[in-house]
């Protein structure tokens, strides 16, 4: 299972991707207004607590963020765009939180437009169609493939 997070300037949207099912688990979808939390880490902990409250057990292998902002070359920190409620994210902080909730500490971060670019290229390269994707929130979608997690399960697509 993989936590996917679409982190924008005003909202954080989460979901858990389950590879064998090839979909985002409906019970795992959650969106939070950023202004309701002091920082991303508080929001992230809130989401993990939400998962723990669900009847299904979630065993997270990897957590991936697509952020509206700059990500450094080592993918260890990110700075959200000007005007965002929160300014910076550090993957090291996330690994500590994941550890406290007894999940894998594997994390990654990418710029949301970079994710969009990979998604469009992948879509064309594989000859995928609209029905090959599952909508999560708005235009945030994940590939419905059982054996492949493409781009850490992020594929941002608009009508091409």
Please provide a brief summary of the model.
By secondary structure, this protein is α+β, with helices and mostly antiparallel strands.
Give the CATH H-level superfamily.
ATPase, nucleotide binding domain
Q: Average pLDDT across residues?
A: 77
CATH fold-level topology: Nucleotidyltransferase, domain 5
Shape: globular
CA(first)-CA(last) distance = 29 Å
Task: State the CATH architecture.
Answer: 2-Layer Sandwich
Question: Explain this structure to me?
Answer:
- The protein has 160 residues and is an alpha+beta fold.
- It has one domain: 2-Layer Sandwich (Nucleotidyltransferase, domain 5), CATH 3.30.420.
- The chain is built from 3 helices and 12 strands, in the order E-E-E-E-H-E-E-E-E-H-E-H-E-E-E.
- It has helices at residues 40-53, 91-100, 112-125; strands at 2-7, 11-18, 23-24, 30-33, 62-67, 69-71, 77-80, 88-90, 107-111, 133-137, 140-143, 155-156.
- The strands form 3 sheets. Strands 1, 2, 3, 4, 5 and 9 form a 6-stranded mixed β-sheet that branches.
- The two termini are 29 Å apart.
Map the helices and strands.
Layout: E1 2-7, E2 11-18, E3 23-24, E4 30-33, H1 40-53, E5 62-67, E6 69-71, E7 77-80, E8 88-90, H2 91-100, E9 107-111, H3 112-125, E10 133-137, E11 140-143, E12 155-156
Parallel strand pairs: 1-5, 5-9
Antiparallel strand pairs: 1-2, 2-3, 2-4, 6-7, 7-8, 10-11, 11-12
Helix pairs in contact: 1-2
Index terms:
160 residues, alpha+beta, Nucleotidyltransferase, domain 5, 6-stranded mixed sheet, 3-stranded antiparallel sheet, 3 helices, globular
